[in-house]
Design goal:
- The complex is a heterodimer of chains A (230) and B (248).
- With 230 residues, chain A is mainly alpha-helical.
- Chain A has a single domain, classed as Phosphate transport system protein phou homolog 2, domain 2 (Methane Monooxygenase Hydroxylase, Chain G, domain 1, Up-down Bundle).
- Helices cover 81% and strands 0% of the residues of chain A.
- Chain A contains 6 helices and no strands.
- Chain A has helices at 7-39, 43-74, 78-111, 121-143, 146-176, 181-213.
- The radius of gyration of chain A is 20 Å and the shape is elongated.
- The model of chain A has no long low-confidence stretch (mean pLDDT 92).
- Chain B has a domain at 3-91 and 163-244: 3-Layer(aba) Sandwich (Rossmann fold), CATH 3.40.50.300.
- In chain B, a hairpin with a 2-residue loop joins strand 9 and strand 10.
- Chain B is globular and about 55 Å long.
- Chain B starts with a strand and ends with a helix.
- The mean pLDDT of chain B is 93.
- Classes of the chains: A mainly alpha (230), B alpha/beta (248).
Chain lengths: 230, 248
């Protein structure tokens, strides 16, 4: 890619890109560790996720600052503008993924107090899909790869169907034996958190497409539809 | 289309300053022209009011139509044309020996337009957002005004003869930010009655005031499109490089 005439501008944009990648890497780890805390019944791991999230929050604030500074001092245009506005939105999604990982970790802490429920296969599968989606969305962002971003958006359907199977599986467990209800209910929350992680990964992918192409792929048709008064 | 340019070429002696430029400007819109120094921006606007041909050794080919009328047709009198197509320059250029009032009505007198000069001058000065600042000293020298006021005086002078098109060549580059904001506000207001072509080095200014933006480079029209698109998602790599600051 061609460099800016003012090299310090390039350095500032690189710095922002690196911070985003670092944040992305951290929330990706949070998800995998929080799921391990649950599957391996390891409360120490769960606590490490909660501690790590402070770092995620600090990075989020730094990234917001960096974006604001670039907007006001550089008045960016074209691909630079799209990159910075995308960064501002991606950072919110990454932070939410981190928060959801913390929620999963907290559920793990709670569930680790009680004897294990019989293994729920679809939960492992859902967690794997989820991590793959987050990783692929971040890769798409790093490489500016539209095809990869489109694949993430498409894969969300698969993630949703696994989620729905899992919900049914958990409901069946509850109906089988009322003593399962509390634990299965906790797992239901975990499933919901993971499903939401997938949605945030999809959001990131949609923004990557905007960043690269300059076209908004979210909510097709909403551009031309009139707003309905409340 | 208010202005239609087809296959316009311009030369200064052997220098080919504009290369086969075609674009059109709808009525009551603002076209901004951006591009690095020497890209042909000023030459382009000077072809619209036939000022280019005043430079010794300058020639041009192609068509410039205003309201469908070919400006270079034999029967078109360039002086009459410049009544319809007014121009404001980078440096405010009021007539130095004239009063504020005489500056505004100079074009009317020159064109033999009769009427209530005081009223016509007030109208133009109000349109140029200068009236309140000068109404008590209309007989003072135009040079007693600040740079920003002088520039608005020149706009009032241009508006007095009620042009249909206003060409502005870097109208705010010699002005401070407040005077610049006043000129930009004026552009928004004048658009209701006029079609405006503005040349500017300031890309944020182009983004603020125009409906469409044209990017010129080395005499070529690289890209012309809605301003928002040019600054958020240009199609041409050279436009992208220029608006993001990756040139040179």
């Amino acid at each position: 890619m061609k460099a800016h005439t003012d090299k310090t501008y390039d350095a500032q944009l690189d710095d922002l890109r690196n911070k985003l990648l670092s944040l992305g890497g951290k929330v990706e780890t949070e998800i995998s560790v929080s799921v391990r805390a649950l599957s391996e019944r390891d409360s120490k791991l769960a606590e490490s996720v909660i501690a790590q999230d402070r770092e995620v929050n600090r990075l989020e604030v730094e990234i917001d600052d960096a974006c604001r500074r670039l907007l006001v001092l550089r008045q960016p245009a074209a691909s630079d503008l799209r990159f910075i506005t995308t960064a501002l939105k991606i950072v919110v999604n990454l932070d939410r993924i981190g928060d959801l990982a913390v929620n999963v970790a907290e559920r793990a802490l709670d569930l680790n107090q009680s004897p294990p429920l019989k293994p729920v296969h679809d939960l492992t599968r859902l967690a794997e899909l989820c991590q793959n989606q987050v990783r692929a969305a971040l890769d798409a962002f790093v490489d500016g790869d539209v095809a990869k971003a489109e694949a993430v958006i498409k894969n969300d359907d698969l993630l949703d169907s696994v989620y729905h199977n899992l919900v049914n599986e958990l409901l069946a467990l509850m109906m089988e034996d009322p003593r399962n209800i509390r634990r299965a209910n906790s797992l239901l929350f975990v499933a919901k958190h993971l499903e939401r992680v997938g949605d945030h990964a999809t959001n990131v992918a949609e923004m990557v497409i905007y960043m690269v192409r300059g076209t908004d792929v979210r909510h097709p048709g909403s551009r031309n539809s009139k707003s309905v008064p409340p | 289309m208010k202005i239609e340019v087809r296959g316009l070429n311009a030369w200064f002696k052997t220098t080919h300053a504009l290369r086969d430029v075609s674009l059109s400007v709808p009525q009551n819109t603002v076209l901004a022209i951006i591009g690095p120094s020497g890209c042909g921006k000023s030459t382009f606007v000077r072809c619209i009011n036939r000022m280019h041909e005043l430079v010794p050794g300058a020639r041009q080919s192609g068509k410039v139509l205003v309201d469908g009328q070919d400006l270079h047709a034999r029967r078109v009198d360039p002086v009459n044309l410049r009544r319809r197509v007014g121009m404001v320059f980078q440096r405010p250029n009021p007539f130095p020996t004239m009063s504020i009032l005489d500056n505004v009505i100079a074009g009317l007198k020159l064109n033999g337009i009769r009427g209530n000069y005081a009223e016509l001058a007030e109208k133009s000065l109000r349109q140029a957002a200068l009236w309140d600042e000068v109404k008590d000293r209309l007989q003072h020298s135009a040079l007693s005004l600040s740079g920003g006021q002088q520039q608005r005086l020149c706009i009032a002078r241009a508006l007095a003869i009620e042009p249909e098109v206003l060409l502005m060549d870097e109208p705010a580059s010699a002005l401070d930010p407040i005077a610049t904001a006043k000129i930009e506000e004026l552009i928004h207001e004048m658009r209701a009655a006029l079609t405006i072509v503005i040349v500017t080095h300031n890309m944020q200014q182009a983004a603020r005031v125009s409906d469409s933006t044209a990017f010129f480079y080395l005499g070529e029209l690289v890209e012309h499109g809605p301003t928002e698109r040019i600054f958020t998602n240009p199609h041409e790599p050279r436009t992208e490089d220029y608006v993001t600051g990756k040139f040179g």
